[in-house]
Every structure is written in C-alpha cells, then in structure tokens.
Amino acid sequence: MLSFKLPVALSLLAATAIAQSYGDNSTLGPNADGKYELSAEGIRAYFIPYGASISNLFINDTNGIERDIVLGFDNASHYSVDPFHPHLGGVPGRYANRIKNSSFVIDGQEYHVTPNENNNNDTLHGGPDGWDFRNFTVVAHTTDSITFSIVDPDGKEGFPGEVVSYITYTLTPHTWHLKMVALATTKKTPIMLSSHTYWNLDAFANPDTPTALNHTLSLPYSGQRIGTDGILIPNGTILPNLQYDVNDFWSAPKQIGANFTSPDLLGNCGTNCTGYDTCYLVNRAQNGPYDWRTTGSVATLSSPWSGIQVDIFTDQDAFQVYSCGGQNGILPIKSTQGLDGRSRVVEQFGCIVMEVEDWIDAINQPEWQRDKKNIFGPGDDPYVLEAAYVFSVKKSS
Ligand SMILES: *[C@@H]1O[C@H](CO)[C@@H](O)[C@H](O)[C@H]1NC(C)=O
Ligand SMILES: *[C@@H]1O[C@H](CO)[C@@H](O)[C@H](O)[C@H]1NC(C)=O
Ligand SMILES: *[C@@H]1O[C@H](CO)[C@@H](O)[C@H](O)[C@H]1NC(C)=O
Ligand SMILES: *[C@@H]1O[C@H](CO)[C@@H](O)[C@H](O)[C@H]1NC(C)=O
Ligand SMILES: *[C@@H]1O[C@H](CO)[C@@H](O)[C@H](O)[C@H]1NC(C)=O
Ligand SMILES: *[C@@H]1O[C@H](CO)[C@@H](O)[C@H](O)[C@H]1NC(C)=O
Ligand SMILES: *[C@@H]1O[C@H](CO)[C@@H](O)[C@H](O)[C@H]1NC(C)=O
Ligand SMILES: *[C@@H]1O[C@H](CO)[C@@H](O)[C@H](O)[C@H]1NC(C)=O
Ligand SMILES: *[C@@H]1O[C@H](CO)[C@@H](O)[C@H](O)[C@H]1NC(C)=O
Ligand SMILES: *[C@@H]1O[C@H](CO)[C@@H](O)[C@H](O)[C@H]1NC(C)=O
C-alpha cells in the first residue's frame, strides 16, 4: 500500500501541477528517440524513464564544439533489450553496489535478497530487476527540470517493505543538479542510491586516445578507502591511501592512467583486475562544520584535450570510482560521439564511472555505525541524496 508522507505528497501534487501545466506542450514530451530534453546556459541533456537515466549530456569544449560526454544508447527503447546492461547512467536501487552474501540483518531478523553476481555470491545494484532495469514514471517535465518516480513493492528482489522514490534532475547554467528522495513506507529496509554515470569528457573524439586514461582526477577529501575482497565485497577494513600510492588522488590531482605501469595497480579492482573500482571515503568534517554546496568539491575530473572539467559537490560521504577495465570493445558509442575512421565502440579504460553514495555494504558492517544513512523505516526522515555537477571549460591556449 501507498502511504505518502505529507511533504512528499505535497511535492507530488506540485510536480503533477507542473506536469499538467506543460502537459499540452508537445516539445516537452519525449522526442523520437524516447528521450526528454532539458537545457540551461552552457548545458543540454537528455533523460529517459528507464532507470531514471541520463542518456546524453552536451557541453561545449574548448573550441566551442558540442561534446556528448556521457555514455548511453541512441534510442531509449534499446536500454530494455540490451543484454549486457552496464547500468548506463541510471539510478541503482534500492541498494546500490554490492550486498555481501546477498543477506543482511535488521532488528535481529535475517533477510535474503536475490543474488545476481559472482556465481550468485552477492547482490549488485539491487538485484537482477533492480531499479535501473525498470521504467520510472515521469511526474513532471519542464524545460530545465524533470522528476521521475518509482514505487518499489514490498518483497521485490527480497527487500522488506515498500519504497517510494522521487528522482529530480535540474539544469541551471553550467550545472546538473541531482536530488533523490526515498521513503520506506511500511517496513525498515536498506536504501542506498547513486547515479551510475559513465564519463568520457572527450566524447571519444580525442585523436590521441579512445580511453579516459589521460583524464585528471582529484579527490581532495579521500585519504581513505573501503577494503574489499577479490570480488569487491567490503571485508570490514578501512585502508589508508598513502601519499604517492596508486590510490592517492588526495595529495595532488593525477591522471587516471598515471600509475598503470605500477604493479600495485594489479588486483586493485578485484582479483586480476588492473585499475580502479574503489569506494573512497569523503572526510570533510575534519575541518569543522561544512556546507556541501559551498565547501570544495569532493571530486574534480578534467580532460586536457577537450578542456572540459566537472566539479562534483554532494552531501554524500563516499565516492566510487570505476576505470572501465571491464569494457572490451562491445558496447557501442552514440551517434553523437566518436571520430571518423575509428571503431565506434567503448574500448577498455574508455570511460570513468563516478558514483556519489554512502559507505558501501554498511548494512553488513554494523561497527561502521552508518545505520542512520543505510536503513530507513516508516516514521524516519526520508533518504536524501543531493549533488551538483558543475562544468567549466579551460580556454585553449
Ligand atoms: C512550450 O515549450 C516551449 C519550448 O520549451 C516554450 O517556449 C513555450 O513557452 C511552451 N509553451 C507552453 C504553452 O507551455
Ligand atoms: C527506437 O527503437 C524502436 C524499437 O527498437 C524502434 O521501433 C524505433 O523506430 C527506434 N526509433 C528511432 C528514432 O530509431
Ligand atoms: C554550443 O555553442 C553553440 C554555438 O554558440 C550554441 O548554439 C550551443 O547552444 C552551445 N551548446 C551548449 C550545450 O551550450
Ligand atoms: C520501457 O519503456 C520503453 C518505451 O516505452 C519500452 O520500449 C520498454 O519495453 C519498457 N521497458 C520496461 C522494462 O518496461
Ligand atoms: C550466506 O547466506 C546463506 C543463506 O543464503 C547462509 O546459509 C550462510 O550462512 C551465509 N554465509 C555467510 C558467510 O554469512
Ligand atoms: C561463490 O560461491 C561458490 C559456492 O558457494 C564458491 O564455490 C565460489 O568460489 C564463490 N566465489 C566466486 C567468485 O564465484
Ligand atoms: C596520456 O597519458 C600517458 C600515460 O599516462 C602519458 O604518457 C601521456 O603523456 C599523456 N598524454 C597527454 C596528452 O597528457
Ligand atoms: C581486506 O581487504 C584488503 C584489500 O584487499 C586487504 O588488504 C586486507 O588484508 C583484507 N583484510 C581482511 C581482514 O580480510
Ligand atoms: C603514481 O603516479 C604519481 C603521479 O605521476 C606518482 O607521483 C606516484 O609516484 C605514482 N605511484 C606509484 C605507486 O607508481
Ligand atoms: C587470474 O589470472 C591468472 C593468470 O592469468 C589465472 O591463472 C587465474 O585463473 C585468474 N584468476 C581468476 C579468478 O580469474
């Protein structure tokens, strides 16, 4: 059953009113590819109901050429039939990342959710029919904002209780804002959301490289990371990112590929994996109270070739980085991307996934004391994730 909390009910009414006021404007419906367009000064994007995903994000590069800097498919209907489902640009839910042994305990009761990874040893991104495998409902769409909703029933994928969620994306000049709200309406349940966006800030048009290894990353608050086993399940340890180690992105910015010749990078993203698939912690409180909107960005990614830079601000306390080691030249790029004469696919290390989130699998690490940010029940404050991705462009010299 659907029992809305008052603020959500009010925002739903407001959202519906907005949707109705634009309801007869055909330019605000989906386009021929099934995508919903938003724009603001210096930024234009498409979103789709499938997984409440971003499918295209256009920023003008240092030469004034529009670049589509996120991965996705050309046609919204392809997302449902693509056999690989790399979680392109969607909202993993109701619990992002991995759940150890596909189980957890709440108030002494053990729950088992549907496994879908590593020979069914764990549950990734909410299970085989997690949120980003489903079409959300578009409840509002204006020229610079869209709100999606989903009602996740009690027992779906084995999770206890119903969850009702609203995902709002808004564009303001040069900025993409994300606001995700979720309510556990009937039982206590784990909730952790994120945005699983894949980036290539060159839109695969850099003649020197089809990879993102030359992108520069900075994680100024991330002196620590969550230790994981060979299949990327947290093993309870918090590890130091010692200065100059392969995981040191805090002491100075460095290229994603800077340490790819270091033997230390082998196994850094699971057994036999070279690169990053790592949950970095974000430690901001050390400098006193902070306002996530104005305190420095938790991450900065830039490409020297396109000159495009994104600064990520968020209220979340962890940040996952995946360097696309699993890509192997099968996933196609979009018609809006690429370079004539080059294969139109994503090569290994061709992208970077960056996920604002909470400490992964904290539901199975009670000693981390993250329950208030991982487990939600009726009567609790809603789960909220906010982030702002701010774009800028280095002028060509
Ligand atoms: C319809 O959308 C266009 C383009 O966004 C806008 O200029 C126009 O004012 C809208 N019309 C109505 C009736 O909302
Ligand atoms: C999108 O894909 C659907 C189903 O595969 C197809 O019917 C439709 O024509 C495609 N749209 C465009 C614009 O190619
Ligand atoms: C890119 O620049 C062109 C030409 O000035 C402009 O029409 C377009 O809106 C810009 N694109 C974005 C995403 O700002
Ligand atoms: C999602 O919606 C698209 C477009 O209407 C449709 O082609 C697709 O089958 C739907 N997918 C699911 C999983 O419902
Ligand atoms: C994993 O879950 C199974 C039930 O699905 C349970 O029997 C087993 O004890 C669990 N293993 C660990 C290590 O927690
Ligand atoms: C997964 O579980 C099975 C059976 O419990 C085990 O044999 C296997 O080694 C585990 N690990 C992986 C990575 O499949
Ligand atoms: C790209 O990265 C490689 C390896 O890190 C480095 O050798 C090369 O100089 C970089 N190129 C540019 C243009 O930064
Ligand atoms: C946990 O994983 C990390 C990273 O692989 C490893 O260094 C550490 O020894 C492991 N600790 C335990 C207790 O398994
Ligand atoms: C990683 O790259 C940085 C920047 O080039 C360098 O300072 C550091 O020594 C490298 N670390 C390792 C372990 O190779
Ligand atoms: C890791 O690589 C080694 C050497 O290529 C191989 O023998 C081993 O089976 C691989 N292990 C896994 C879990 O893929």
TrEMBL record:
One of the protein's GO biological processes: galactose catabolic process via UDP-galactose, Leloir pathway
GO molecular function: aldose 1-epimerase activity; carbohydrate binding
SUPFAM superfamilies recorded: Galactose mutarotase-like
Pfam families, per database record: Aldose_epim
Residue ranges crossing the lipid bilayer per the database entry: none
Taxonomy, superkingdom: Eukaryota
Keyword flag Protein biosynthesis: no
Keywords: Carbohydrate metabolism, Isomerase, Signal
InterPro entries per UniProt: Aldose_1/G6P_1-epimerase (IPR008183), Gal_mutarotase_sf_dom (IPR011013), Galactose_mutarotase-like (IPR047215), GH-type_carb-bd (IPR014718)
UniProt xrefs under Gene3D superfamilies: 2.70.98.10
Leader sequence residues: 1-23
Matches recorded under PANTHER family: 1-EPIMERASE, PUTATIVE (AFU_ORTHOLOGUE AFUA_3G13240)-RELATED, ALDOSE-1-EPIMERASE
Family listed: Belongs to the aldose epimerase family.
Listed name of the protein: Galactose mutarotase-like domain-containing protein
